[in-house]
Amino acid sequence: MNRLSVDFLGINFKNPIVAASGTFSFGKEFAEFYDINMLGGISFKGLTLNKKEGNEGIRVWECESGMMNSIGLENPGVEEFVEKYTDYTQNIDTVKIVNMGGNNLQEYIKGAELLNKVDFDILELNISCPNVKSGGMLFGVCEESAYEVTKAVKNITRHKLMVKLTPNVTDIASIAKACEEAGADALSLVNTFQAMAIDVLHKKPIFDNIYAGLSGACIKPIALRMVHQTAKAVKIPVMGMGGIYTGTDVLEFLMAGASCVQVGTANFINPLALKNIIKELEAYCEKENINIKDIINII
Amino acid sequence: MAVIIQNTQIAKNIYKMRVCCGDDAKAGQFYMLRAWANNPTFSRPISICDRDGDEIIFVYEVKGKGTKIFSSLKSGDNIELLGPRGNGHELSAKKCVLIGGGVGIAPLVYLAKQLKSHGAEITAYLGYTNEAFLTEDISKYADKVIENIGGYITDYIDELDADSVYICGPEIMMKKAYELYKYTNAKVYASMERRMACGIGGCLGCNIKTKNGNKKVCSDGPVFKAEDVFYE
User: Is-catalytic flag, A129?
Assistant: First the structure.
C-alpha cells in the first residue's frame, strides 16, 4: 500500500513531492542521480512565449539560510519546448507540470494556446513576471490583473490550470480568491520574495537587476503562514512551497492546508534532496500508521 | 562522503587538500565540495589540482565562508564530493602553452601531468599576486616555466608557436592572453568560473554568453574555446 499517494485535481500523485519550477530544469540533470519517476511530479523550468536569454551579471547569491536568484527566466520558449523537449518529458512517468510566464496578456494567451498541442497534466501560470504594458507592475500583485490573466488563460487552455502566486503582496488571500473566481483549478505558492544584496566593497548592488528572488529555509515560516491563509480562503486545492528542506517541513505545509508541495532550493544543496524527503515521509507514515492525506489541512 | 588525508596551507590564503577518492577524473574537471549541512547554502566548486593513486588533490583559496570552513578541516575529517563535474580538457596537443593566474594555476598541475604523459612539449607561464605556489609541481612536467609575482603574466609571454594554449585565471587575464594567440594557429582554451548553486546544470546560475548562445559553465564547460567566450 502506498501511504504517500495524494489526489490533486483528480490526478493521482505517487506522493506529494513535486520538483519546483526553475530548480529542476526538465529533469534530465537529476535523472543522473536517481529515478525521477519516484517523484510525485515535476514542474518544468518556466517557459515564456519567446525564448529568453536571461539576465546578465551575477545570477545566484547565497545568504544566511537561503539564496537569491536573478536567472531572468532563461528558457527555450514555448515553441522550442513543444518541438524539442517533449520527446524527453513525455516519457517521464510522473505528474508533469508546465510552468509558463509572460510579459503581457497576449503572450500568456498565445503561449497557452501553443501548449494545447502537447499533453501534460497541469499548466502552472507564473503571474509574477513584469507586466510591461502597465509599467513594471506585476500581474500577481493586484486582484484585477491576477483575475484578468487567469480568466484569459482559462478560456484558451485545455489543461488544468494552477496559478502560481507571488508572496510580494499585502493580502495573499484576496489575490487567491480573485484567481479562484477567474476559474483557476488550483493555486501554488509561494514564488520567491523580492530581496536584495549589496557589494559593500564596490558600493553597488550584487545583481544587475538590483532586486532578486529570495528562497530557501529563511522564507519557510512566512511561506507557511501564506499557504495557511490561502488554504483557508479558497476551496480549490493548494500546492505549497517555500524553503522546504526536510520531511518535517513537508508535514507542516500539508497540515497548514497544502495538498501537495513543491521543493526547490533543497535540490541545489543536495541533488538527492527530493528522494531523501520522500523516504522521510514514508518512515513518518509507517511510524504513525497513517496515510499522508490524513494530515492535510488539519490545522 | 570522502576522508581528508591532509589539509595544509601552502601560501597566503592558499591550501592544499588531499582527499581519499579513486574517481577517474579528467584534467579540467571539478567537484562540488561541502563540509556542512545546510549553511552555507551552496557547495563550493573546486577544480582538480592533481591525482595521486586513490587520492584527489584540491588547491583552493580561502575567499569566503565555505573555503574558510574547508581550511579548518583536519586529516580524518569527512567532506562530501559531488563529481567529477564538467567537460575537462582534450589532450591531443604536442606543443602546449599553459597560462595560469593565482589559484587558477591549480588545475594546470594535473593538466601538465596528463599532457606530458601524452608526450607534449610544455611551456608554462604562472602569475601570482603575492607569493608563488605549485611552481615545483608544474616544473616536474613542464619543459619551461616562467613565473612572475606582482605584475601581469601576459607581459612575459614570448612563446607564440603552439598547437594548444590552456588558460586558467582571472577573466581579464584570460582575455588578454587569448588576444596574444588570437591570430596564431593555436587552439586556445579558457577555463571559466562562475558562482554556482547546484553545479549539475539544474539552476542556470552559472550560465555565460558564448558565440553559440548561453552555455552552462558547470556542465558545458568549465573549459571553453576562448574564441567562443571572448568574442565581443
Answer: yes
Q: Do A66 and B198 touch (CB under 8 A)?
A: no
Q: What residues form DSSP beta bridges with B141?
A: none
Q: Is the CB of residue B173 less than 8 Å from the CB of residue A37? A: no
Contact, B103 vs B14, CB < 8 A? yes
Question: Is the reported ipTM for this assembly greater than 0.90?
Answer: yes
Q: Calculate Rg over the CA atoms of chain A.
A: 18
| Domain definitions of chain A by residue range | 6-295
- In chain A, residues with a C-beta closer than 8 Å to the C-beta of B41 are 62-63, 65-67, 216, 265, 268-269
B109 and B182, same domain (yes or no):
yes
Asked if A24's CB is within 8 angstroms of B41's CB, the reply is no
Q: Are residues B175 and B128 in the same domain?
A: yes
Decide if B195 and A60 are in contact by the 8 Å CB cutoff.
Answer: yes
Domain count, chain B: 2
Which residue in the list A63, A129, A142, A260 is annotated as catalytic?
Answer: A129
User: Do A19 and A42 touch, CB atoms closer than 8 A?
Assistant: yes
The answer to whether A4 touches A281, Cβ cutoff 8 Å, is yes
Q: Tell me the CB-side half-sphere exposure of residue B107, using CA atoms within 13 A.
A: 27
Q: How far, in Å, CA of B109 to CA of B107, rounded? A: 5
Distance from CA of B99 to the nearest CA of A (A): 25
pLDDT at A103: 87
Q: What superfamily would CATH give domain A6-295?
A: Aldolase class I (3.20.20.70)
Give the number of other Cβ atoms within 10 Å of residue B159's Cβ.
17
Q: By the CB < 8 Å criterion, does A269 face chain B?
A: yes
Please give the DSSP secondary-structure letter assigned to residue A47: B
Q: What residues in A contact B203, CB-CB < 8 Å? A: 22-23, 60, 69, 71, 268
Determine the pLDDT at residue A265: 98
Mean predicted confidence (pLDDT) in A6-15? 98
Tell me the per-residue pLDDT of A143-194, one tens digit each, with 9 for 90 and over. 999 999 999 999 999 999 999 999 999 999 999 999 999 999 999 999 999 9
Query: Tell me, what DSSP letter sits at residue A22?
Result: T
* B41 at A interface, C-beta within 8 A: yes
Q: How far is CA B45 from CA A54, B33, B105, B184, B194, in A?
A: 22, 6, 15, 32, 9
